[in-house]
Write the structure tokens for this entry.
Amino acid sequence: MAEPTSIKSEIPTPTVEGPSTRPAPVSETGTTLDSIHRLVIEAGETRNQVAAIRDQLKDVMENNPEYRAIIDEMKDLTKKRAEAKKALADDKDYQVVSADLDDLRLKLKDIHEILSQHLVLYYNQTNSTKLIDSNGETRSLILSAKLGKTEA
């Protein structure tokens, strides 16, 4: 098997903008920003390596006769499943239950989004990652941040 090659991608360097909730010393901010720059580049390189290895793995699997036979069977079953779902789509009971399920999923997504906003607000007000829920149990807050797309 060939060794994967490291492909360096052009990733824009992030900058820190906007007000911060608590100012950090300049040297600490610089070190943190340097780490962010380094990790963004490393993440891009690793993403490229993952893609290359994934392609190699796909090639190996597709060259396996047993795997190809199972994939062909799965394609046939997928077609049969689609036909069965199409037949169900005309059933009134199915339509009612499906619409109810869609409504509940949307409601749950909205509740999770609102809860997330309240948890962030709670953290900003208390600076605590612990919360006592309505049952008296202590729960941990999981805070997450992602680097967004570049702005024009």
